[in-house]
């Protein structure tokens, strides 16, 4: 066996350069690069190794460990999980800053390779700078925080351990069912230790998506359920996009006359203009989708984990004779709420169902009724997005302006606050992947960093980031990185002077206006934050606009700008789109001395009776 002597870190870096995939028939590196913030726990070992492969595996410098991991996740999501990035930090706060991002990737089933530095395996200098010590367990380090939010976790305490660890890591990162974050915790002394690695370890390997076919019995049960359906509905989740099954969903819906609703992750599975696209479903759903969900007797959930926002906390699906078919490569998701499991890749599963359905078609009356509801929804949506002369515009009016000027083909990025609900209902998405939301973990601060990752994955496409002032204040540093890398973003900041979304939820559950909007917080002076000036200080072109009309003018002008542009507009924190939507289970206190809370509790107790409890 021929070997080559390398440090563990050098072997890791070289291995990453040899992993390949295919995109549109072209072989490309599966890793788009490595985001790195160096410290004493990784600069001497992995930092030196990355320098050695800098022409094959580019290293990108960011400003915050959490946000660089968000950018890597945004890259993977925008690449439909076909490509990904690695992220490395030092030990201590650099590592634990990435835990939130790991949770985001875990919830959303997105691949990212996290490579935090760790303590010395030989323990000679214990406790090393930034080491977290357990009084009860000498093997614990701060990186154990990654265990519950990683699909695979390993701590590398000997240089040869990187061989099986990387093989397992790649298997998880590229598997449709297992996909999620992998953490390889790199002891800093081991990074620098040498080993005679087999040359075969560095052979080029091509990773292609696995397309699991359904079992005969599960397929037969799913087909039988659909054949008996009088009111079928498709729920398109993120798995439709990751499988590359958007065209298959379109053909399936058209062939069988089945209306399609979309989750946050699945939005853009069909173009918004398609006559069978009923739009968003659930708590943030359209009236068209949610009426059908209430009445449907068979729901074909494709690539969805059916979280509470999709199902209206399992109170939306009101038909007690309703059957859910879970078409999903992951058994855990396919069997939720006693669904008929169809464990398969979305594209493969749809092909097999189609082969067996024959000439069956949904009743014309159901399809016609769906289209009528869709037409009515667009009347309501147009009202919500139309400009007015109001002193403070609504989120919906800002969304309408951005959509009108920038179009439906650019990629929209968002994550948290009130915007995801309004965007899910109102944004008119065009091509697959043009709607990019983290609404599994709904992570404040993901937006700008995630937008950077999207732009890295789609350098020739326009990317617009929409976020509130709360998210901007939490994490904005990658504006500077976007300028540094020459990756232009459109960023629209909606300033409602606080956490407007949660303030509305607080009011809806009987609570007092407290600690959400700036005016309702403990303060001596209310801050007058100049977001435009701040963005300019990070290198962006920026401006605060005073109206929807001025926003549209500046968005049009931004098309000619040579770098990231940030536009800020004040908005009303209380207005939200009234049409559409469904109940969401937010527990209200059983006991309170406030009449508004007691009234909200009474309404809550009535609402929970509609929940489908069949777990």
TrEMBL record:
Sequence ranges assigned to domain Thiamine pyrophosphate enzyme N-terminal TPP-binding in this UniProt record: 45-130
Enzyme nomenclature, EC number: 3.7.1.22
InterPro entries per record: DHS-like_NAD/FAD-binding_dom, Myo_inos_IolD, THDP-binding, Thiamin_PyroP_enz_cen_dom, Thiamin_PyroP_enz_TPP-bd_dom, TPP-bd_CS, TPP_enz, TPP_enzyme_TPP-bd
Recorded GO MF terms: 3D-(3,5/4)-trihydroxycyclohexane-1,2-dione hydrolase activity; acetolactate synthase activity; flavin adenine dinucleotide binding; magnesium ion binding; thiamine pyrophosphate binding
Domain Thiamine pyrophosphate enzyme TPP-binding stretches: 419-568
Pfam families documented for this protein: TPP_enzyme_C, TPP_enzyme_M, TPP_enzyme_N
Keyword set includes Cytoplasm: no
PROSITE patterns: TPP_ENZYMES
Keywords: Hydrolase, Thiamine pyrophosphate
Thiamine pyrophosphate enzyme central domain mapped to chain residues: 219-351
A biological process from GO: L-valine biosynthetic process
Superkingdom classification of source: Bacteria
Enzyme class: hydrolase
Ranges in coiled-coil conformation: none
GO cellular component, one term: acetolactate synthase complex
Protein family membership: Belongs to the TPP enzyme family.
Protein name: 3D-(3,5/4)-trihydroxycyclohexane-1,2-dione acylhydrolase (Decyclizing)
């Amino acid at each position: 066996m021929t070997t080559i002597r390398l440090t563990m870190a050098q072997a890791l870096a070289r291995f990453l350069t040899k992993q390949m995939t295919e995109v549109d028939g072209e072989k490309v590196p599966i890793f788009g690069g490595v985001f790195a913030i160096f410290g004493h726990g990784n600069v001497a070992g992995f930092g030196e190794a990355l320098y050695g492969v800098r022409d094959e595996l580019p290293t990108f410098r960011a400003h915050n460990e959490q946000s660089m991991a968000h950018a890597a996740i945004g890259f993977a999501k925008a690449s439909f999980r076909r490509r990904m990035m690695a992220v490395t930090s030092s030990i201590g706060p650099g590592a634990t800053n990435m835990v939130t991002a790991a949770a985001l990737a875990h919830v959303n089933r997105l691949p990212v390779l996290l490579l935090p530095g760790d303590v010395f395996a030989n323990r000679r200098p214990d406790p090393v700078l930034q080491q977290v010590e357990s009084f009860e367990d000498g093997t614990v380090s701060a990186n154990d925080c990654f265990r519950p939010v990683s699909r695979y976790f390993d701590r590398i305490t000997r240089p040869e351990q990187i061989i099986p660890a990387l093989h397992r890591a790649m298997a998880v990162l590229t598997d449709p069912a297992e996909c999620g974050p992998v953490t390889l915790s790199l002891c800093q002394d081991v990074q620098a230790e040498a080993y005679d690695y087999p040359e075969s370890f560095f052979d080029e390997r091509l990773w292609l998506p696995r397309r699991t076919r359904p079992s005969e019995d599960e397929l037969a049960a799913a087909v039988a359920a659909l054949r008996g359906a009088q009111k079928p509905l498709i729920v398109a989740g993120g798995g439709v996009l990751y499988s590359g099954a958007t065209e298959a969903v379109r053909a399936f819906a058209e062939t069988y006359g089945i209306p399609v609703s979309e989750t946050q992750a699945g939005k853009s599975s069909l173009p918004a203009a398609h006559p069978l696209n009923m739009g968003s479903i659930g708590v943030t759903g359209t009236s068209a989708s949610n009426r059908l969900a209430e009445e449907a007797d068979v729901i074909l959930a494709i690539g969805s984990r059916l979280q509470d926002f999709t199902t209206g906390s399992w109170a939306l699906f009101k038909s007690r004779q309703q059957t859910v078919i879970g078409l999903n490569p992951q058994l855990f998701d396919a069997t939720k709420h006693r669904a008929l499991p169809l464990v398969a890749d979305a594209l493969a599963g749809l092909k097999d169902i189609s082969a067996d359905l024959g000439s069956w078609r949904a009743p014309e009356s159901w399809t016609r009724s769906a289209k009528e509801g869709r037409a009515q929804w667009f009347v309501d949506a147009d009202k919500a997005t139309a400009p007015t002369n109001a002193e403070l515009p609504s989120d919906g009016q800002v969304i309408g302006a951005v959509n009108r000027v920038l179009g439906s083909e650019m990629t929209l990025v968002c994550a948290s606050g009130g915007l995801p609900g309004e965007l899910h209902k109102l944004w008119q998405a065009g091509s697959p992947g043009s709607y990019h939301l983290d609404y599994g973990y709904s992570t404040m601060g993901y937006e700008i960093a995630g937008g950077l990752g999207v732009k890295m994955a789609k350098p020739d496409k326009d990317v617009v980031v929409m976020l509130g002032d709360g998210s901007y204040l939490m994490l904005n540093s990658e504006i500077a990185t976007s300028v540094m890398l020459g990756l232009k973003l459109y960023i629209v900041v909606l300033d409602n002077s606080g956490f407007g979304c949660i303030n509305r939820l607080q009011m809806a559950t009987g609570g007092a206006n407290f600690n959400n909007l700036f005016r309702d917080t403990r303060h001596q002076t209310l801050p007058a934050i100049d977001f435009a000036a701040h963005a300019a200080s990070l290198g962006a072109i920026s401006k605060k606009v005073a109206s929807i009309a001025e926003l549209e003018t500046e968005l049009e002008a931004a098309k000619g700008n040579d770098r990231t542009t940030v536009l800020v507009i004040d908005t009303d924190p209380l207005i939200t789109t009234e049409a559409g939507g469904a109940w969401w289970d937010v527990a209200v206190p059983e006991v309170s001395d406030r009449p508004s809370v007691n009234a909200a509790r009474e309404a809550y107790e009535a609402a929970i009776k509609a929940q489908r409890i069949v777990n």
